[in-house]
């Protein structure tokens, strides 16, 4: 720490940083640092706070289990708080754990330890009553998480009803475990996403977290999610006499829950270490990602006796594995221009083998990162591969730095079009703001034509590149005048009559896409398929979205201020407006009328405004919305005097209160079903 920075400032800075990382990890599901780096920062903050109690704050990220409910889903309060595990990184810390346990118990654990793999996914709490799954909830802040029951119900590894449901119908219990994605499923899914024009997920864990937050359960059902159970807790009055972790796992298996086949029951801490070392070595042989081992005192009586500290039990720890690293030479730093003009520095490496693949390139994230780590061309660098698809440069071996090397100077101009790069206040990225910059144009048009957007067959990245280079395409609107230039197009390489006719047919067909696909295709920052759907659902047409005020966009359920502002700004961009006008003139699907939805009006629903709140037991909220709209009604996000009905499911929150306050009629699910 520099002497000029006061302790108070350092603490404040760490808190800010950690809050931001928490948000990226839990809410955006896009972390930018590794768990280990996060832990190091948390530990630094914890030790500073312990040393300087005058700076204590109940709002510090150290004072809670990380995470926040997202507000996209109804809140779910846990019957028993969901704790997290203290992390250890070496043998000494594991031995320290054993010593503490022996001291507290006065003897070593009578029933030894269980050694489990630490699955790298998302923790899930499943509640069963009468033998049936009644709720699935994420951890959130440990006390309250998101109710994601509808999504969880689509995961086939999770039993909707337990085996022997009759025999155990008197039990109310909670199963905790990890939702995760197998590597094979993950890779397939990412390939699919790229084809659809959606950004690929960095790793299976992000993709699991992102999937669980998806609002459309039908989408969730298509994703290859899996589950492994690692904890059983009784929450009713009735309990079974199962006094060890191993017997509970066996019982879970009997009830139909997948449990890990790799769990071992051992006597001594040396065997614990053997287990941890074995899997540290052999983790790549598993069909899923793990990031460590979990060690638990097997006896539940002893677990109770040991109890917990604020956020984690004393009877269990995680042993986190070392990141997988290799050293190599950094030959060059090149810059990539993304679809939004974001400049990403890329490390061009002397090829090196790591975890079975040869690595030639790695991400350097941004200019700050290069500066902070003082990464220079010619350096020997440490390459790290977490579960991430893209390896990264973790650090520099300073001792091996060649003489005379100079710090890397970030260019002031775009590597592709030479226009000056912009560094917006408070952002880590540099941007090329020239809309005509060719890699951006290519990426934008490719995205527009991708399968998840306008789905224009024959307009993949290579063709787009060819057309852009030859000057036929500069904006998305140019796609729709390509057929005027047929003769000149025929002169291009690898271009034939048949191919062009197919392309023109594909272009024509794209005009019948629903407006949400067009909206997604425009490539507005933060507007993925989900958000595009929500916007069209809320406003009916792109025209209305374009006219909407910032507040109106912000009011749409699940749309936060950052997304709202991005959408709002986009439609006020003077360069965008004329392009959109032209597209509209060509008959592209701007208005909701183009949605070919069979509306059969029902008196009860016709022209009425509905607001949905809470969880429904027979359908997701999306499905309920569809059903309302298919009968001539409208579903909106917030309750006002204009609302005709509030449909309230289980655990309905503030919207129900508001409805009662305003005297809006409240429908139960049963009443709603009757009207359907
Ligand atoms: S036990 C109080 N067992 O690791 C004990 N956790 O911070 C609670 N995890 O949130 C967790 N594999 O998401 C346990 N075999 C395992 C696990 C496991 C993965 C995750 C879980 C938890 C985090 C620990």
Index terms:
676 residues, alpha+beta, D-amino Acid Aminotransferase, Chain A, domain 1, OB fold (Dihydrolipoamide Acetyltransferase, E2P), 6 domains, 19% strand, globular, binds 2-(butylsulfanyl)adenosine
Tell me the β content: 15-25%
Oligomer: single chain
Q: What is the residue-mean pLDDT, rounded to a whole number?
A: 89
What's the total count of β strands?
A: 22
CATH class category name of the largest domain: Alpha Beta
What Rg do the Cα atoms give?
A: 28 Å
What does this structure look like?
This protein is α+β, with helices and mostly antiparallel strands. It has 6 domains: 2-63, Helix hairpin bin (Helix Hairpins, Orthogonal Bundle); 77-320, 2-Layer Sandwich (D-amino Acid Aminotransferase, Chain A, domain 1), CATH 3.30.470; 325-413, OB fold (Dihydrolipoamide Acetyltransferase, E2P) (Beta Barrel); 438-512, 5' to 3' exonuclease, C-terminal subdomain (DNA polymerase, domain 1), CATH 1.10.150.20; 515-594, 5' to 3' exonuclease, C-terminal subdomain (DNA polymerase, domain 1); 609-675, Rossmann fold. Helices cover 36% and strands 19% of the residues. The protein contains 24 helices and 22 strands. Strands 12, 13, 14, 15, 16, 17 and 18 form a 7-stranded antiparallel β-sheet that branches. The chain has a 5-stranded mixed β-sheet with strand order 2-11-10-3-9. It has a 4-stranded antiparallel β-sheet with strand order 5-4-7-8. Helix 22 links the parallel strand 19 and strand 20 (634-636).
């Amino acid at each position: 720490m520099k002497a000029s920075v006061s302790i108070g400032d350092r603490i404040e800075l760490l808190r800010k940083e950690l809050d931001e990382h928490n948000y990226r990890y839990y809410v955006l599901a896009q972390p930018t640092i590794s768990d280990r780096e996060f832990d190091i920062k948390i530990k630094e903050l914890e030790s500073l706070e312990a040393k300087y109690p005058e700076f204590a704050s109940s709002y510090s990220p150290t004072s809670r289990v990380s995470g926040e409910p997202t507000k996209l889903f109804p809140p779910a309060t846990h019957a028993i708080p969901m704790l997290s595990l203290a992390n250890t990184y070496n043998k000494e810390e594991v031995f320290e754990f054993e010593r503490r346990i022996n001291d507290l118990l006065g003897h070593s654990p009578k029933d030894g330890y269980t050694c489990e793999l630490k699955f790298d996914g998302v923790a899930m709490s499943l509640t069963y009553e009468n033998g049936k799954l009644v709720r699935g909830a994420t951890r959130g802040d440990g006390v309250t998480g998101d109710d994601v029951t509808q999504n969880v119900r689509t995961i086939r590894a999770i039993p909707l009803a337990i085996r022997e449901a009759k025999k155990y119908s008197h039990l109310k219990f909670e199963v905790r475990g990890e939702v995760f994605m197998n590597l094979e499923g993950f890779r397939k899914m990412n390939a699919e996403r790229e084809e659809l024009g959606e950004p690929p997920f960095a790793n299976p864990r992000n993709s699991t977290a992102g999937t669980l937050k998806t609002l459309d359960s039908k989408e969730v059902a298509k994703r290859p999610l899996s589950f492994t159970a690692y904890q059983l807790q009784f929450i009713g009055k009735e309990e079974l006499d199962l006094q060890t972790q191993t017997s509970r796992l066996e019982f879970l298996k009997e009830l139909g829950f997948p449990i890990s086949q790799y769990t071992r029951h051992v006597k001594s801490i040396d065997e614990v270490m053997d287990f941890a070392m074995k899997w540290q070595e052999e983790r790549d042989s598993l069909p899923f990602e793990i990031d460590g081992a979990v060690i638990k005192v097997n006896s539940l009586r002893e677990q109770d006796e040991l109890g917990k500290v604020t956020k984690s039990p004393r009877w269990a720890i995680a042993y986190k594995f070392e990141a997988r690293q290799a050293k190599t030479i950094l030959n060059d730093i090149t810059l990539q221009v993304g679809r939004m003009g974001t400049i990403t520095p890329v490390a061009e490496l002397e090829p090196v083998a790591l975890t079975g693949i040869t690595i030639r390139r790695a991400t350097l994230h941004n200019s700050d990162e290069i500066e902070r780590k003082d990464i220079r061309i010619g350096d020997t660098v440490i390459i790290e591969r977490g579960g991430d698809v893209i390896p990264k440069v973790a650090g520099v071996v300073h001792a091996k730095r060649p003489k005379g090397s100079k710090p890397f100077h970030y260019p002031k101009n775009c590597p592709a079009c030479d226009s000056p790069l912009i560094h917006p206040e408070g952002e880590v990225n540099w941007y090329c703001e020239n809309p005509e910059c060719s890699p951006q144009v290519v990426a934008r048009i490719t995205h527009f034509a991708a399968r998840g957007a306008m789905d224009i067959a024959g307009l993949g990245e290579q063709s787009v590149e060819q057309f852009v280079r030859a000057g036929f395409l500069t904006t998305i609107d140019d796609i729709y005048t390509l057929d005027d230039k047929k003769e000149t197009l025929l002169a291009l390489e690898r271009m034939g009559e048949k191919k062009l006719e197919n392309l023109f047919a594909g272009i024509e067909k794209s005009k019948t896409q629903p407006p949400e696909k067009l909206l997604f295709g425009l490539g507005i920052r933060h507007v993925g398929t989900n958000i595009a759907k929500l916007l069209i659902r809320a406003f009916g047409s792109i025209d209305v979205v374009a006219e909407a005020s910032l507040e109106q966009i912000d009011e749409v359920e699940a749309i936060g201020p950052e997304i709202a502002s991005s959408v709002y700004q986009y439609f006020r961009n003077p360069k965008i407006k004329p392009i959109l006008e032209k597209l509209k003139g060509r008959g592209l699907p701007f208005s909701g009328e183009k949605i070919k939805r069979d509306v059969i009006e029902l008196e009860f629903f016709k022209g009425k405004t509905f607001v949905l709140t809470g969880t429904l037991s027979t359908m997701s909220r999306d499905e309920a919305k569809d059903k309302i709209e298919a009968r001539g009604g409208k579903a909106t996000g917030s309750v006002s005097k204009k609302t005709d009905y509030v449909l309230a499911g289980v655990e309905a929150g503030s919207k129900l209160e508001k409805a009662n306050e305003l005297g809006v009629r409240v429908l139960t699910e049963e009443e709603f079903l009757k009207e359907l």
